[in-house]
Amino acid sequence: MKDNTKKSFDIKSIFRGGLGQLTIPIIAIALLVIFNLIRDPSFFSIGFSSNNEGNTVLEGNLISIINSASELAVLAIGMTLVTAACGGQDISVGAAAAIAGSAFVKVLKSGSEIGAGTVIAAFILACVVAMIFGAFNGTLVAVFKIQPMIATLILYTCGRSIAYWINGGATPTVSSPIITAIGSFIPGIPVPTPVIIVIVMIVLFKLLFRFTSLELLTQSVGINGSAARLNGINTTFIKLLSFIFLGICVAVAGCIGVSRLGLINHETLLLDIEMDAILAVAIGGNNLGGGRFKISGSILGAYIIQMLTITLYAMKVPSTDVKAYKAIVIVILVVIGSPVVKQKFNRFMTQLQMKKNQTAVKEGGKA
Amino acid sequence: MQEDCLLKLRGIEKRFPGVRALHNVDFTLRKGEIHALMGENGAGKSTLIKLLTGVYSKDDGTIYVEGKEAHIHSPQDAQNNGISTVYQEITLCPNLTVAENIFIGRESNMVVKRKDYEKRTAEILSNLQIPARPRQQLGNCSLAVQQMVAIARAVDMQCKVLILDEPTSSLDDKEVNMLFKLMRDLKARGVGIIFVTHFLEQVYEVCDRITVLRNGELVGEYLTEDLPQVQLVSKMIGKELDELNNLSEKDNVVIEKGEVFYEAKGLSSSSALPFDFTIHKGEVNGFTGLLGSGRSESVRAIFGADKVNGGTVKIKGKQVQIDRPIQAMKNGIGYLSEDRKGDGIIAELSVRENIILALQVMNGFFKPISRSESEAFADEYIKALSIKTASRETPVGSLSGGNQQKVILARWLLTHPDYLILDEPTRGIDVGTKLEIQKLVLKLAEDGVSVTFISSEIEEMLRTCSRLIVMRDRHIVGELKGSELNQAQVMRTIAGGETKNEG
Amino acid sequence: MKKIKRLTSLLLAIVLVFGMTACTSDTGASSTGGGDTPPASTGSGELIKVGVVNNPPSESGYREANVKDMEAVFSKDNGYELKTFYSIKNDEQLQAAQGFITDGVDYLLISAAETTGWDEVLKKAQEAGIKVYLFDRMIDVDESLYEAAVVSDMAKEGETAVNWLLSQNLDTYNVIHIQGAMGSDAQIGRTGALDAQFASGKMNKVVQQTATWDEAEAKKIVETVINSGEDFNVIYAENDGMAKGAVAALDEHGITHGVDGKVIVMGFDCNKWALRELLAKSWNYDGQCSPFQAGVISDFIKSGSAPSSKVIYNEEKGFDAKTLTQEDIDTYGLGE
């Protein structure tokens, strides 16, 4: 009997670890990779080339995918936290990123020359601005208990007007080697800088989870706010905090977006990215109703969405159809990841596992 | 005899990964009988019921309904076989009328006109003598009536087998009697009722037969009159009741009064009227009174769970401010709330995470408990409280009620509180665990922890508490200790026969 | 303690809400700013009263230049009293037009948010003897209801650009065509001429994809083509921003562009920063989409003569990097 429980415990843990939350995104990535390899075996080939500034850089579709998904990946991190703590999503991240990006450009353009100091100051201001707007959203959600989607609808609606108000002109441009380095490549490093920024963000958040109890507290608040409160957790603070962290992500994404082209168009910067960010969270197997979360899932989700877009571009799918194809794939992914299908799948796996167990036990008995 | 058999289960097997939930279980339900299904948590009662209602599928064995083999794979199958279930939590729609609730989701719903089904409902209600009107909104009815409407719905759907899963746990005595009347009525009509409850007295009041399960196996089937209560308990927990008796002896031991640990004067909250309260180091006291008497509200005020409005609080003679749970926790107070699901467990988190939660909160945001440390804590308490779980990483929501309660107890014990408030820690859990919790309370007191213990079962409180505070209509109406600690005296005080001054 | 926290968070929220309404009302204020001309001017009598219903300047760089131009041309110095109203909502625009009619303006200038719903208001204007000019955008009403519409000929912009491209006499034309938001006037007009070339076989379509005016999206499209290894020597982007996105992709992959470069880069709208790229020879061509209708309309008003045609196309240029001057940038460039 004892052996039995021990064995099943092992199986269960493997089961959880291997086929848990990340199953769907990993399978999705695998399918996309296989599909592309069949379509065009050289799709994922990576090579070195020299860019117009004379640096040796990596190039290839894979690099493009990972590079262009950077803003989405960063936003997905913050969105995951907000989703986990508040059980709702922030739909204003695109607009807020436009504001942060505008603030970034505003500072860059304030001096005659753009030095490292100016860029740092500009980034810090962008962060502060985005955090203030995050706090605004967070206050509406955590203190006034407004549904996150409704609360953030306000900023979603007026955010891009605020961005316009910061800089006036429709597409102010900034040109500086530092900005180019942030947006594309640092001389001597062949990896696109936005990719490096994503890695830094992931490491920072991992450290945050490592050295604070944020993960446990956030999940507790998201799953059962009432119980969390009675265990001494300041639920308002945790929710507010999640929005402030999202604010930082928004600022980072906004600054990457601006730096890529050295220009800000408040109308199009990270347009519609909120929906992709929410999708990334969902595809990553996180419950949109809050609670347990996995940042890695959301980041995978972001790369899946981007891989899908690039695949469709590479297939030269007519521009008007791209969104429809994207929608089909996403519907499939989200349905596969839905609790109903998951439960059915788990039940099936359990039965399979049990049959194996039985035969194993029988064989063991014979021996 | 054979044709009287409504439901016959033979050799039922059900396995979950790592757990054999049911092994070779037989169960027989006859026409016009009320049959109690008894057992500790984890004995297999719920699994058996879920097999009958089509939530789970059996791995082996046969189910016969009226002599014919039945295959139940979905709740729809169960209904087609005449098996209906009424759960502890009302599963009807509170914002619809009684009539709508009885007819909702049934095929006839499409054709039958409102007037017709209201008329039909009126008939059913008067037939079963349920005190409700067809057009009354269900949410406005008392819990008992809602429960009865759910039963009426089942009866009207031509059910032959009615399963009542803990129907009485949130009802008061009067309501329970109403429900029993209805059950006897149905019994007279030939309906077979499977009754699942933790209240032993109720089993003896209303049941004809008792089937006892333990560890997923059948212990036996007995006629109620042949099985004294003490024997029933021993069959359920699988050992003789010496320990229970040992506990009973302890109620005479009056704990020497040590220093005062906690003292409140005029403490009030948004839901509790001002009251005074003192507890000594190593003392076990209880708050008793009927539901709604204010006993839970008072202890919530002590913990700062509700908005505190006024009063002074002293801990070890020093004045402190407690108006948020975290302040209470920092002052060494722990609180297990009466609503285990709503205010206790974080269902999707693992047993481990649930156990370390309160300690983590007290440690603060920047001092996370490391993985290995938390695993050690979890293992320690899983062992100490013998929590039955597949692993420490199992989501706590999938444990049985008693084990969930133990996890929350572990959570508070891990904070090493000086004062632990336990509001209904034994509600809805099996006898064995109840006993363990009572023992734990006494052991904590021996170790110098002050405990406030609240239970709806007065006997349980008499066994564990050395002092009882009696509340009525949100006021403290008496304080009993020593020789006054007997059922009759408590009842009298609750009923208001005699008001004692605080000692 | 708790109360203080609540209070601060409440304050924070209030401040933020105020900040937001302040800035929205700020744009609102600047939009009605023109209407705030001192009432004294009504006394002077000689001023011509003009009501302008337009989209808000925040819509685009184009609109911002358009609004600035209107305010500059219809200034007091030029003998006008200007009332303005800016909104992207048709019903608000309709109400404002109604208000201008009631105020008794002499001329009503409209760039409508939507093409429908204007019949009644324009009829009322006609009854009141107010002359109506449409600018930038057409409206679905009977021609008799307005004096003239001064608009950009998007199709012609496309033709000018494509003709310029043909004049480059390349051996082959392998074109990456990045489109604007599908269905918009600018997209339809600027796509048409190029589609004709694709159809005739004079130019090869490497890819034709919409980036919905989004710079980053344009970059992705070009990057995908580069990664696929397909050959191309022209990028035809339907606005400056998307051209900039495309160029960023070229730069990252070490592909030369502009005058003497491998790839010809074409954009539209004549933003100042884009024209500067031309001046630096890193782009080749930028097509103008003139927001300057005010001068044309003012000429009609001042001369008192009726326009010769109901639809008057604004004269628009195409700039070649080889011939562009700093003076052109100062005159025709939008923004800063």
Describe this structure in a few short sentences.
The complex is a heterotrimer of chains A (367), B (503) and C (336). Chain A is mostly helical.
Structural overview:
- The complex is a heterotrimer of chains A (367), B (503) and C (336).
- By secondary structure, chain A is an all-alpha fold.
- Chain A has helices at residues 2-19, 23-39, 61-68, 70-86, 93-110, 116-142, 148-167, 177-183, 193-211, 214-223, 225-230, 235-261, 273-283, 295-314, 322-336, 339-366; strands at 47-50, 56-59.
- The radius of gyration of chain A is 23 Å and the shape is globular.
- With 503 residues, chain B is α/β, with parallel strands linked by helices.
- Chain B is built from 18 helices and 20 strands.
- Chain B has helices at residues 45-52, 75-80, 98-103, 114-127, 143-156, 173-188, 200-206, 229-237, 242-249, 295-303, 325-330, 340-344, 351-363, 371-384, 401-414, 431-446, 458-464, 487-495, and strands at residues 5-16, 19-30, 34-38, 60-65, 68-69, 83-86, 161-165, 192-196, 209-214, 217-223, 260-269, 275-280, 284-288, 308-315, 318-320, 333-336, 419-423, 450-454, 467-472, 475-481.
- In chain B, helix 13 packs across helix 14 and helix 13 runs parallel beside helix 15.
- The longest helix of chain B is centred in the middle third of the chain and has 16 residues, at 173-188.
- Chain B is globular.
- Residues 15-44 of chain C have low confidence and may be disordered.
- Chain C has twelve helices and twelve strands.
- Chain C is of the alpha/beta class.
- In chain C, helix 5 links the parallel strand 3 (107-110) and strand 4 (131-135).
- In chain C, helix 6 (154-166) runs parallel beside helix 7, helix 8 runs parallel beside helix 9 and helix 10 runs antiparallel to helix 12 (326-332).
- Chain C has a six-stranded parallel beta sheet, with helices on both faces.
- The chains are: A mainly alpha (367), B alpha/beta (503), C alpha/beta (336).
- The interface between A and C is large, with 60 and 56 residues.
